[in-house]
Amino acid sequence: MTELCLPLPAQAYRFDLLLEFLRRIACPARLIVHGDTLWRFTEGQLLSYHESADAIIVRGESLTADNVDRIERASRRWLGLDRDLTAFYEFAKRDPDLWSVVEPLVGLPIFCSETVFEALVTLIIEQHITWKSALRSQRELLRLTGTCARAGQTAIYDFPTPARLARASQAELKPLKITNKRIDLIIAIADAADRGELDIEGIRCLPPKKAYEQLLAIKGVGHWTASNVIGRALGRYPYVSHNDVALQAAARHYFHDGAGQKSAAQVTETLSRYGKQAGMAGHFTLLRWVLDHYPALDHRGPPGLDSRPKARLRQAPSSS
Question: What is the pTM of this model?
Answer without folding.
Answer: 0.88
